[in-house]
Amino acid sequence: MYGTSPGDPSVYSLEHQIDAWRAHLRRSRAITGSDAAELEDHLREQIAALGAEGLSEEEAFLVAVKRLGSIDALTREFAREHAERLWKQLVLSGDGGYGDAESVAGEGSRRMWVALALAAAAAVAIKLPALFGIEFEGEARGYFYPLNIGFLTLPFVAAYFAWERRLPAASRLGMAAVFALAAVVVNAFPFPSWTPGARVPDTLYLTALHLPIVLWLAVGVAYVGGRWRGNERRMDFLRFTGELFIYFVLIALGGGVLIGLTVGLFSSIGIDVEPAIGSWIVLCGAAGALLVATWLVEAKQSVIENMAPVLARIFVPLFTLVFIAFVVTMAVTGRGIDVEREILIVVDLLLVVVFGLLLYSISARDPLAAPGVFDGIQLALVGTALLVDVLALWAIGSRISDFGFTPNRLAALGMNLVLLLNLAGSAVLYVRFLRGGAAVQRLWDWQMTYLYVIVAWAAVVAFLFPPLFGFA
After folding, report:
1. Which residue would you say has higher pLDDT here, 102 or 282?
2. Burial class of residue 444 in the structure, from the number of CB atoms within 10 Å of its CB (0-12 exposed, 13-18 middle, 19+ buried)
3. Between these two residues, 207 and 107, which has the higher pLDDT value?
4. How far apart (Å, rounded) are the C-alpha atoms in residues 423 and 385?
C-alpha cells in the first residue's frame, strides 16, 4: 500500500515507509501540511513506544499505522470535520489550521503580516549599501551586488520559515552562521578592483552564479523545520521552489504592467519618474516580492493542487519535441554546439530544466500506478537530453584540448558531467521501471540524493575556483 513492502528486508527502511505514508496522506485535500505533520508526530511516538516494548521497526510501524487508522478513514474523518476548510482557505487565509473561522483567519493574518514585515526588511536591506555610496546602478557599485544579492534577500526567506516552523534556537544560530561565514569568505576574496568597462573576472562571474544554489540549501533546511531526513521533505522543498518561481514570475509580470502604467501616467504631466522607479521601486519591489511569493505559496498550497507538477506534465512533451528537433537539426546540418559562455549557459539551463521537470513529474505520480504513456515520454526526454549533454561535453572537450583550461570551461565541464551522471542514472532506472523490474521510489531516491551532488559542485565553483584560478 505504501510502496516498498515491510516484509522484504532488502528494501525495507523505516524512513522510506514513513515517507511513503506521508506522501499518500498529503494527496488528500482534506488533510493539510500541518495536519500531516501532527499525524506524523503521533505515528513516530507510537513507533518509539512500541520499539521500547521490544517490537522491531517494521512491526512497530505496522502496528502504529493500524492504531492511527487507514489513510482513507483519516481522509473521510478530516473531510467531515473540516468540510468548511476549503472555503476558509480560499477566502480567508489559506492556512488550513484548526478551529473556527476567526482562529483560522487570525493565524493566516499573522503569517501574512510577518511575511510583509520581512518583505519590507528585505527591501530596506537591498538599499542599505546606498548609504555607503554603493548604488545598484552606477560606477561605485563595483562587484558588491553580484556577490551579495543572495545575502541581502535569502536570509529573510529563511527567517520566515524559521519563525513559521518554530525552528529551535540552535538551528537558527547554525543557519545564521552559514550565511555569515559564506558572506565573509566571498567578500574577502581579492578580486581585481572594478573599473568602468573592465572585463568581469570569470571566477567572480562563476561565484555569483553558483553561490545562490548553495545558500538555497540553507533555506531548504529552514523550510523543513530542521528535519532534513526523509526524501518526502526534500521533495516538498523542491515543489516549493517550483511554486515560488511561478508566483514570483507572475508578480514580476504584474509589477511590470504597473510600472509601465505609472511611467505613462506621470509622463502625461511632464514628469519623468523612470530614474526613481529604476533605483527604488524595481530593486526594492523585487526583494519584497520574493517574500510575498513565499507567503503565497505557503498560504495556498493546500487549497489547490501544486502548479509545478501540473505544468511539468504539460511541458514534458513540449521539451521532448524541442530536444528531438534540436538533435535532428544537428544531425542534418552537421553543426556542433558553440562553446561560448552564453551558449553553454543556455544549454546547461535547459538540462537543469529537464532535471526539474523530471522531479516534479515524479512528485505528482502515484507510486503504485502501473507505467503508462507519460512515463515513456519522460524516458524519451531523458534520453534526448542525455544525448545533448554528450554532444555538449564533446564540444567542451574539444575546446579544452585545443586551447586549454579556463574557469568557464572547467565549470561547464563539471556541470555537464554532473548532469550526465544524473541523466544516465535516471534513464537506467526509468528503463527498469518501465520493464517492471524496479519501483518508481528508487527513481525518486536517486533524484533526492543527487541534490547533494549538485549543491557540492556549486560550492566547489563558488568557493574554490576563485583562489584556484587566481581570482581572474
Report:
1. 282
2. buried
3. 207
4. 8
What are the extents of the domains in the chain?
A: 14-83, 111-300, 307-468
Q: Is residue 36 pLDDT above 50, yes or no?
A: yes
In the predicted structure, residue 199 carries a pLDDT above the cut 70: yes
| Euclidean distance between CA atoms 247 and 294, whole angstroms | 8
User: What's the pLDDT at 182?
Assistant: 95
Query: For residue 235, which of 361, 363, 366, 426 has the smallest C-alpha distance?
Result: 363
| Rounded CA separation 294/233 (Å) | 17
Q: Is 188 exposed, middle or buried (0-12, 13-18, 19+ CB in 10 A)?
A: exposed
Closest among 33, 3, 6 to 21, alpha carbons compared? 3
Cell of 351: 538540462
Asked whether the beta carbons of 234 and 22 are under 8 A apart, the reply is no
Place of cell 568602468: 196
51 residue type, one letter: G
Query: With bands split at pLDDT 50, 70 and 90, how would you rate the model's confidence at 176?
Result: very high
**CA neighbor of 161 nearest in space, from 117, 125, 114:** 114
Model confidence at 34: pLDDT above 90: no
What are the tens digits of pLDDT across the range 349-404? 888 888 888 877 777 676 667 788 888 898 999 999 999 899 888 888 888 888 88
If you ran DSSP here, which 8-state letter would residue 337 be given?
P
Q: Any idea what DSSP says for residue 130? A: G
The counts of H helices and E strands in the chain are: 19, 0
Cα first-last separation, the chain: 56
d(CA 236, CA 230): 10
Global confidence as pTM? 0.73
CB-CB contact of 383 with 315 (8 Å): no
CA 54 – CA 294 distance, rounded (Å): 44
Q: Is-contact 175 222, C-beta < 8 A?
A: yes
229: Cβ contacts below 8 Å, ≥ 6 apart: 15
CA distances in angstroms from 24 to 19, 21, 28, 252, 312, listed in the order given: 9, 5, 8, 34, 20
Structure confidence by residue, pLDDT tens digits, 298-325: 876 654 455 666 677 788 888 889 889 9
C-alpha 420/C-alpha 389 separation (Å) is: 6
82 contacts 116 by C-beta, under 8 angstroms:
no
